[in-house]
User: Which sequence fits this backbone?
């Protein structure tokens, strides 16, 4: 059974810092990996999708990498802003559909 | 292009009642999946429908059921509600039957069981 772990569970940093959020998974037989953002009480917004054959994807200030063989992904946020405050979820898409980590709760202090 | 639409957004029910939640996927998307999100368990997969057929099912009791219509809209039903069913229920749609497509989520239905 796929298990997804996200570290750290929570992070609070001043505005402007560059951040790295970590995601690890136990079964490397995946189709893709998605990073999502969730604001309190809201649905999930897709940030980046990395196919299993890819190593990284970039969108604006966000960069996600995937090392399928070691079961790891990182989400890099450059020049963080208060509007980046949210919970970031990593999800791996495998035979059992999407399996989510518990998320990283991020607070960017103005 | 409209996103994934879930109705209703909020719902309050009494223990023992049943409830039906609705999800309209993005136009052209044929796969709909349902998830339950609680503070303790996080996001857990309920089931997935593709072309009106249940393709995958998570580890939830039989009180949780779903269906998909020919227009890809999906409904989820929970019977004999329990207090522990209080959660945010999220629906996701994706374009094709293959597994490597991006999932898009709705805003969710917040169910409170009292």
Assistant:
């Amino acid at each position: 059974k796929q298990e997804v772990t996200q570290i750290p569970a929570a992070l609070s940093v001043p505005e402007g810092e560059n951040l790295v959020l970590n995601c690890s998974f136990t079964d490397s037989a995946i189709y893709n990996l998605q990073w999502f953002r969730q604001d309190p009480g809201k649905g999930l917004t897709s940030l980046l999708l990395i196919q299993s054959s890819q190593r990284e994807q970039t969108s604006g200030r966000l960069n996600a990498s995937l090392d399928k063989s070691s079961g790891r992904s990182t989400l890099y946020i450059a020049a963080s802003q208060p509007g980046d405050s949210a919970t970031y979820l990593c999800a791996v898409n495998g035979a059992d559909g999407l399996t989510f980590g518990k998320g990283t709760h991020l607070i960017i202090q103005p | 292009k409209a996103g994934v639409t879930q109705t209703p957004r909020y719902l309050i029910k009494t223990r023992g009642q049943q409830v039906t939640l609705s999800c309209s996927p993005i136009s052209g998307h044929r796969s709909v999946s349902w998830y339950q999100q609680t503070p303790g368990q996080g996001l857990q997969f309920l089931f997935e429908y593709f072309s009106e057929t249940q393709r995958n099912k998570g580890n939830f009791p039989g009180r949780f059921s779903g269906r998909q219509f020919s227009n890809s809209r999906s409904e989820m039903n929970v019977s004999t509600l329990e207090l522990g069913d209080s959660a945010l229920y999220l629906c996701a749609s994706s374009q094709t039957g293959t597994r490597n497509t991006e999932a898009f989520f709705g805003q969710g239905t917040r169910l409170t069981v009292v």
Q: What stands out?
A: The two ends of chain A are 41 Å apart (CA to CA).
